[in-house]
Amino acid sequence: MWAAPKCSMAFAPLNSPDSCFSILPRAMMADSVVLLRHPRGTPDPYEHALAGEGATVQCTPVLAFDIDPPPTLSVLLNRAAAYGALVCTSPRAVQALRQALPPDHPLYAAWANKPTYVVGPRTAGAVSEWGGQPTGAEAGDAAALADRIVADAPGRLLFLSGNRRRDTLPRALVEAGQVFDEVEVYRTRLRSNITLPDPPAWLAFFSPSGIEAVRASGYALDAYACAAIGSTTAAALRDEGASVQAVAASPTPDALAAAIRDVQASGQSRPSSP
To answer: Could you tell me which Pfam families the record lists for this protein (predicted)?
Structure first.
C-alpha cells in the first residue's frame, strides 16, 4: 500500500529541506545569459552560479591576446644580475615569461628566485605555477602595489606589460624615483566577430570592452536585456544609450545571479523580442 511521506510536527521553515511544504519558491531563469568574458576555470564561477538558477549560460570572450615577446626581452633577461625583481600585472605577462624562461633555461633559477610583483591572486597563481616568488598580490590594485614596491626598495625592476596597460603603476614608480625597464610582451585586441544568440536573451557585461565587441560585431544593445558587473560598467552602457536592467551589488558570481534573478522575479523588465 502506498504511504504518504512522513511530515515532522516540528515547525521547520517552510522552504527548508525538513518541511513537507514550500511556498514562494526561488524564481528560476528560463532565459539565455551570455557572459561577455573569457571562462575562468571549469566551470566558470559565473556560469556555474547562473546555471544554478536555471539559465542557459555561455561565456563569450570579447578580447584576444597575442603573446609575442620582442628580442629585447631576451637581451634584458640575460642581464639578470642587474635586476632585483620582476613586475607582471597580468597572467598574459607571466605566460610570456614562461615562454622566454622555461625551467631548462640557464637563467631560470636566477629569475625564479627574485620577487615577482603582481596584482591579484590570478597573476600570483600563474607566477607560482611558473616556479617564481609572487609578491604583493594582497595589495589589491596598482597604486597600492607601487607603494609596496617603493617600500621594499628592490632595486632595478624588469616590468613585463601589454599594449593596453594602464598608466597607474608606471607613473607612480616614476614619481617615486623607482628605476625600471618596461617591455611590452603581449598585445590585447578587441574581437569583432563574436556570436550572440537571438533575442530575447541577457548580456552580462564585465567591462566596457564587452560593449565595444558587441557593437563591432554588428549587434544592437537595445535588442537585449543588459546586466553589469558594477557601477562603472553600468555607466558605460548608459553612455552608449543602453538600458541597464540589472547591476550586481558586488563583483561576484552570486551577486550577478541575484541581480538578474530579482529583476526577472519582479516582472518589471525582461529581454524583449526585436
So the answer is: HEM4
Identify the pLDDT of residue 141.
Answer: 82
Within 10 angstroms of residue 15's Cβ, the number of other Cβ atoms is 12
Exposure string (b/e) for 89-114, b if CB count within 10 Å is 16 or more?
bbbbbbbbbbebbeeeeeebeebbeb
| Cα 124 to chain centroid, rounded | 14
Q: What is the 3-state secondary structure (H, E, C) of 227-267?
A: EECCHHHHHHHHHCCCCEEEECCCCCHHHHHHHHHHHHHHC
Cell numbers at 144, concatenated = 597600492
Q: How far apart are CA 274 and CA 53, in angstroms?
A: 25
pTM to 2 decimals? 0.69
**Cell numbers for 236:** 558605460
Cα–Cα distance for residue pair 7/268, rounded to 1 Å: 37
Cell matching residue 124: 600570483
Domains belonging to the chain, first-starting first, are: 32-62+191-266 (3.40.50.10090), 66-189 (3.40.50.10090)
Phi and psi (nearest 5°) for 56? -90, 120
Whether the pLDDT of residue 76 is over 80: the answer is yes
